[in-house]
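Quality-control log, excerpt.
Job 1 of 2 completed; input and output follow.
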Amino acid sequence: MVNLKKRSVSLAGHATSLALEPEFWAVLEDMAQARGLSLAGLILALDAGRGRRPLASACRVSALAWIQAGGAVAASAPGEVAEG
């Protein structure tokens, strides 16, 4: 059984729940800190740039891309999701 950790976030004035594995939450927290954002601010930026991708998927893909880039995905574009 997968151990997901749920957190509530407010996106465009609407409360929503986001469930991710604890390892992804840890990476997202590191990403937010590196960019000088709160975790909520980072999730808001990822939400704005996710297109049609589900929010949880956008968070996971962004966390993976950040790790693959050595934790150095451009802080100027937090909503971009690396593909390739």
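Job 2 of 2 completed; input and output follow.
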Amino acid sequence: MAVREAVDECGVKLVDPDKVELVRAALPSDHDIAELADVFSLLGDPGRLRLLTSLLEGGELCVCDLAATTAMSESAVSHALRLLRAHRVVSVSRRGRMATTVWMMPTCGCCWTWA
């Protein structure tokens, strides 16, 4: 009986060991990876994703404007923003009685170009 080689296995263990070492040195720490996984899990909710997209497009926005852009209630927006603030994805700035929210991770805008 002939033995079949697995399709997804390389015949060579390392093709470019120098590149492998460079990439491994550039990888984030396990702690940073865990934090990023938490942040990316937030993107699984359509409402939070709409909020982040609104902030990416509009910049700094107040809760009532975010509610209008996402067709969500102000209560739902506030709840979602609390989760996003807890994971340091957005921040809030206050000027008197007005509070606005801004996306704190501008480099993550590249995720939207992948879709």
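Post-run check on job 2. The mean pLDDT is 83.
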